[in-house]
Amino acid sequence: MPGQRLQGCRSLHINEDNGRFLLLAVLIILYLLCGAAVFSAIERPSEVQAHGKWNRTLFNFSETFNISLDDLNSFLREYETAIAAGIRADALRPRWDFTGAFYFVGTVVSTIGEYKNRAYQ
């Protein structure tokens, strides 16, 4: 029996390269977790404060113009959908006209080109 256990332990042996990779992966995960904790601790209070202010604004608007909060929230969801689709209230030109599309393509190509150049150096 003891010989079989020893054999099992030998199969779990990690070579030096794999050990370094595993250690690096663990350190990166710890770094990300710590960064998330710090960022959350810094940003969360202001987010809660902004959310409270927004709720008071919605309530005041609802009371002033005699609109139910459900109707107002429904309208705002529709507005968010329109904004996400690229619809702007005061659009001087379409968002995806030729010049806008050309700018976007140029940005993508230059970013990918820069990434490839760095990868081969």
TrEMBL record:
Q: Does the keyword Metal-binding apply?
A: no
Keywords of the record: Cell membrane, Ion channel, Ion transport, Membrane, Potassium, Potassium channel, Potassium transport, Transmembrane, Transmembrane helix, Transport
Instruction: Give yes or no: UniProt keyword Membrane.
Output: yes
Query: Which InterPro entries does the UniProt record give?
Result: 2pore_dom_K_chnl, 2pore_dom_K_chnl_THIK
Q: Name one GO molecular function term.
A: outward rectifier potassium channel activity
Q: How does it sit in the membrane?
A: Multi-pass membrane protein
Q: Which GO terms describe its cellular component?
A: plasma membrane
The subcellular location is: Cell membrane
Single Gene Ontology BP annotation: stabilization of membrane potential
Give the residue spans that cross the bilayer.
21-42
Catalytic activity, reaction form = K(+)(in) = K(+)(out)
UniProt cross-references to Gene3D superfamilies, sorted A to Z: 1.10.287.70
What family classification does the UniProt entry report for this protein? Belongs to the two pore domain potassium channel (TC 1.A.1.8) family.
The protein depicted here goes by the name: Potassium channel subfamily K member 12
Q: Which organism is it from?
A: Coregonus suidteri
